[in-house]
Amino acid sequence: MIGSPGGGIWRTTDDGDNWVALNDFLPVLGVSDIDYNPQNPNTIYICTGDRDASDTYSMGVFKSTDGGITWDTTGFQYGFTELQKTNGLLVNPLDTNSLTLATSVGIYKSLDAGATWQIRQAGFFQQILQHPTDTAIMYAAGFVTSGTSQVYRSIDGGYSWQSTASFPSTRRLEMAVTKNNPAIVKLVVANNAYGLDGIYNSTDTGKTFIKIFDDQNCDSNILASSPKGDKCGGQGWYDLTIQISPVNENDVVVGGVNTWFSTDGGRNWTIANQWSNTITGVTIVHADKHAHKFHPLQPTILYECNDGGLYKTLAPMNSASIWQNLSEGLGITQFYRNAVADNATYVLGGAQDNGSKMLTGGTSKQMTGADGMDCHIDPSDSNTLYTSQQYGELRRSTNGGQTFTDIQNNIPGRPEGAWITPFLVHPNASNILLAGYNKLYYSIDQGDNWTEISPDFISNMTRIAVTTLDDDYIYVLSTAQSSSSMRYSTNFGSNWTDLTTISQPQNNVSDIMVDPYHKDSLWVTYRNYNGDKVAVVDVKTKTWSKFNVDLPQVPVNCITYDAQNKVFYIGTDLGVYYREYDSTGWNYFNNGTMPNVEVFDLGINNTTNTIWAATYGRGMWSSPTHKSTVGVANTIPLATDVITIAPNPNYGAFEISTQNKLLKGKQANVRIVNMAGTTVWNNNISIDNSGNSSIKADLPRGTYIVEVIKDNTVFAKSKMVVF
């Protein structure tokens, strides 16, 4: 089994030839750790969230008792808004009810297989390890003192912890142990520049450590992006791993951007694989290593998890060894953006650390490399397409992707943009391109020449919006950390007006779109857990309208409009929602197939009536567009101001809250109706004097209408999503 930061947990029973996803409909698909009961392997635990990059946050520890077919919560749970991480779990092999958990706020113990938990050590802990033979001894790595990586040790099964090593001015460390010599603990420590601080060794079960290898003033920095290891810095905050062979204590593997091996216990290092063709004769394997594991039954086999997927080798201590890619069938690609055009039979996608891809039918073809970002298709000629890489490196192809030209080089000064630098093909003239850095540039010849049309906005732009209603209107979004600013021009950049003076929270703005019928109205989405999700600003009257009805308390990442059917779509951290242009609320748009995954971009092909979703963790998905009003959701008026349902989404257990005086302290009836109009739950409830009532309904996953009825009168109806 493998866990991905945004695509869930997957299992193979044939060494990677075929894969099956096991948790499509958990509320978060990020998986940081997988553990099972060694006395009953059908009992599996997962730590949810993204341990290394925080692209997804944890909702706690989940448990399956049927081999991953079904999942349930444990007593360790986080809410969407808590932004915490569960990073590693240990199951005591002698007492499988005893669990030890490392989290972003401390180390916890459970003695009842996860039903209840108690904190034993406060701090931020990113890794936890068991002594190979003595279950009383454990090791944990993290931060208790800010800016100082620390090793903590327990000798009583995780009840109490003592710091045994501190490394000031460091960013992260990872630990490894081996059955071949249980007294050994090895560390790889990254400094504040994310390069190598050193390799450390303990021969007394982690009581003391000595440095056995350092970067020698960057000359031997094995965490550097260069496979020669001769550069300072690295990515130690993000990709860092160390493993020791279970049968030879001298064989050690370290991963950063590249992978290295040592055959003398870590005192000397040789490149094992490289991400670019820099050293002749060394195998090329995808960059950014997050985990290495030796096969427990065949210890000469080493598995590597990196940003390209899962690889294995039969000869890990050899620079020329063959590495087999086992990722075929793992649908865990993290797409930032997609490009869809009515005249194109393909879709483009820009993927995190996996370049830009052309998707045709069920096949994928690589276009350009690095981190794939924003991309576009010429609406008048599908052979002309555009891709980009991180920080705004723009590419153009005029022959369907066979060859590409660097058009960022043509921008004066070759500026560096945001991580995802926005650019677009103008919908009214496909020869005109707009690209947003700290200044906005335009080209009238498909990128051969560029002219700046804005002042320096200081912060890099993250979105650009134009309209078919008026060529001169341009809106831009700039973002610095979580603070956003929006500006617009009505004369193609000659003058700009700042929208930040209009009273409306503008932190965490994720996307902007001009209203399809009103050029002075701008739709805005927010990547917030609490607060507004979707709003519209009228730039002439300086007024805001909010469109939050029936949306869960999760971030909204993008918005698009289907002009043919007059339907809005938004991509959220829990999939896609839609609303018809003149309706009041949003509807969950899922036919039961797309997982609960973050959707970062949406595109519509009006020729095929298809909507495409770029997901950050489960690849690219498509569906027929919503064409007509179907089902009970659009015939029942929802009075969400009368009752509140929390949490929403939920697992069938929720609380109804109301401030209605006719309901407080009264008996009422609650009826739950599915989207086909069938009553699936109907019971009497008591609402306390504060206006609250707890309900537990055994419901399958889906969207429902909850009705509160008193004296044969429906007082309120509200939409609810059940996972």
Question: How is this structure best described in words?
Answer:
With 723 residues, the chain is mostly beta strands. The chain folds into 4 domains: 1-168, 7 Propeller (Methylamine Dehydrogenase, Chain H), CATH 2.130.10; 178-202 and 210-329, no CATH class; 335-631, YVTN repeat-like/Quinoprotein amine dehydrogenase (Methylamine Dehydrogenase, Chain H), CATH 2.130.10; 643-722, Immunoglobulin-like (Sandwich). Helices cover 0% and strands 45% of the residues. The strands form 16 sheets. Strands 4-5-6-7 form a 4-stranded antiparallel β-sheet, with no helix packed on it. The chain has a 4-stranded antiparallel β-sheet with strand order 8-9-10-11, with no helix packed on it. The chain has a 4-stranded antiparallel β-sheet with strand order 12-13-14-15, with no helix packed on it. A hairpin with a 4-residue loop joins strand 48 and strand 49 (567-572). It is globular, with a radius of gyration of 27 Å. The relative contact order is 0.06. Mean pLDDT is 92; it is low at 628-641.
